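The following record pairs a protein chain with its ligand, pyridoxal-5'-phosphate.
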Amino acid sequence: MPGYNHLFIPGPTNIPEQVRQAMNLPMEDMRSPRYPELTLPLFADVRRVFKNQNGRVFIYPSSGTGAWEAAMTNVLSPGDHVLMSRFGQFSHLWVDMAERLGFEVDCIDMEWGTGVPVELYAERLTADKAHTIKAVFVTHNETATGVTSDVAAVRAALDACNHPALLFVDGVSSIGSIDFRQDEWGVDCAVSGSQKGFMLPAGLGFLSVSAKALDAAKTGRHMRCYFSFEDMIKTNDAGYFPYTPPTQLLRGLRASLDLIFEEGLENIFTRHHHLANGVRAAVSAWGLKLCASEPKWYSDTVSAIRLPEGLDGTEVIKHAYRTYNTSLGSGLSKVAGKVFRIGHLGSLNEVMVLGALAAAELTLLDCGVKIEAGSGVGAAINQFRAAAATATAKAA
Ligand SMILES: Cc1ncc(COP(=O)(O)O)c(C=O)c1O
């Protein structure tokens, strides 16, 4: 088929040309005396993205899942009591990992389409007078359902009852795309991965930790080896790694961070909100519903869109791929076949989003969904133009 594949899954995301070019270089010596000229600024700049001035960041040659494991095995001890919630495939997988690593998990199951139950967390924390809960977990952006949770509110709940539990946040599909403030929100372990907001291939797991988490790691008794903070710190401090680092990815990271700072984090968050509003306008014009059950849960990086009863989402996605060379995200686990997802994060603009919406419209029409041709695309165009007019008026 002529043209290229239009990638609108919520990660891996589209890679800017500058980043791709930056990774096209010969192998280099990762023990050379000059290597720290690359790595030391990388550590500092990744911390800027997390807004972590007081702790440190670990960059693992893994996907985000490795950084989940690194966080838990370094900072906690076997049998530790942790408070988690599950409302989608990724929050489920984090719970599953915590159980398999031997923690005592108090998991609150929520309806898929909602997010972290802050009030229930507050109740559990207030009742825990003996402070047996060692860590509280938040999936900031549940990629499977397109739901964003309120990390600051969880911090406020911890503070309201003076609970010393550590705060762990999965920011794999939020950090670098949606507002995230590690220091201000008192996040102790924040996890992300390279293939979403960082606009890189998969292969780097980021774990940004607070000084409190670093302290906790000194007494944490869980088995750890590959992900050991201690081993990393010993070598990272001099600009090296305890094993062979993925040198191309680190060069790509340099280029992606340069692009991020050139645009500015706050502008990136605004752009994501703007693009997401366009997608939401289209969904509403089609007469369809998001999986996220209320506006307070709407995600600015991914929309999971409910399909009419009786339609098999897997077939819808296959049709988009085969007929229009367009990759839309599939429904996962509990919502498999019931939703399709549009990833609207990373290196993306209005025209690309309109392309995704046009492909979705063509596909939905072909699959027999009763929508009007052009309705979603038109609604998104109107949304984008209205937002641009408001911004111009404000600036005048
Ligand atoms: C919210 C969230 N957490 C964790 C993961 C797992 O990350 P990875 O696939 O990089 O291991 C993903 C992957 O999509 C995710 O979206």
